[in-house]
Amino acid sequence: MVLDKEESVSLVSLQSREKPRGCAGCNGKIRDRFMLQALDRFWHEDCLKCACCDCRLGRVGSTLYTRSNLILCRRDYLRLFGVTGNCAACSKLIPAFEMVMRARDNVYHLDCFACQLCRQRFCVGDKFFLKNNMILCQLDYEGGHLNGSSERQPQ
């Protein structure tokens, strides 16, 4: 059975009279002024890294993920084990770590979030409409191009 765990990372000050602790990453003594505490162990700041991308987890944020004896950053955890879905416009797979746009129950790649008649991309604050499960710009929605009143067809 594989267990997933989300763990917080703490920066701990080593007191001058305190005996140096061993690093869980390199097994060396931690003589630095500060050390990281995660997974009930202590680490040099440079030793607590993502097993995939080697990013320093003390800098990335205050959370790390473990699964199958791997210590991972959020992005790699989602890339390897995250739930993915399909884009409502192109039907292609959306990786779990990718930024998306949502409209009701539909999820879209950022590049696919455009009027499905004229292909106009939307900027932050632009109005868009969802009709018959299609994203439309204001011009195409108000023009009634889905009612058969125009020659315009989806591209």
UniProtKB/TrEMBL annotation:
InterPro entries, per database record: LMO_RBTN_TF (IPR050945), Znf_LIM (IPR001781)
Keywords (A to Z) from UniProt: LIM domain, Metal-binding, Repeat, Zinc
Gene Ontology cellular-component terms listed: nucleus
Recorded superkingdom: Eukaryota
Keyword Nucleotide-binding part of the UniProt annotation: no
PROSITE patterns: LIM_DOMAIN_1, LIM_DOMAIN_2
GO biological process terms held by the UniProt record: positive regulation of transcription by RNA polymerase II
Alphabetical list of Pfam families matching this protein: LIM (PF00412)
Domain LIM zinc-binding, chain residue ranges per copy: 21-83, 85-147
UniProt GO MF annotations: DNA-binding transcription factor binding; metal ion binding; transcription coactivator activity
Keyword rRNA-binding found: no
Protein name: LIM domain only 1
